[in-house]
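Protocol step 4 of 6: structure prediction from sequence.
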Amino acid sequence: MAFLAKFKKVDLVKFAEQLGINITSEDRVIDICRKIKNSPHYEEEFAKGQIEVIAHERETERAYELQKLKITIAAETASLNSTRSEGSRNRREIKHLMQKFDSQNTDIFLYLTLFERQARAVGIEEEEWVTQIISLLPLELAQIIIKEPEKQMREYTNVKKDLLDRFKMKPEALRVKFTQNQRRPGALWKELVFELRNYFDGWIEGLNVKDFKGLKDLMIADQ
């Protein structure tokens, strides 16, 4: 069974399904390997060869999707570049100013806030923001965006909403972050102020609070 553990979980699951094995979301890799080994249809050499085929097909499909995404971005960029003036052709792309988004360690709300500030600072028009933000996202998130209807995908506000919804950044989540956020070890106080201000702005904007009375009512209700 040792050779089975060398494969990715997604490939083991697909092979198990081909054998008619029921796999649940709670199953770990070791559980899936055990179920495959105990299947009456299991044969070691066949299993090894078939899972290698499955893994190869997955990698091929991933490479194809990545290439398709690059072509889409290149086409969008070429279309935008054709309408720019000569003076704007040398504009720096935002991917040279910001690190790519890390979904494991970065807050999506603060990341998008920083992205918007940087885009405005270097004079990037808002109609170009979708192309720019796509270049900063990991493949799996970029694929979500390009699968949206073309009209919706072209609007940055729609893309931003999709990303915030995916990471469950609703007003209540922003309220919790605002009330519970603390300065990280080694971080500057101004970084904490930046985070608190943006969490607070996102919270009240999400609840459509427009004036002092609305803000007062919100503060009282929250208490």
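Step 5 (inspection) to follow. Residues 44-83 form the longest helix (40 residues).
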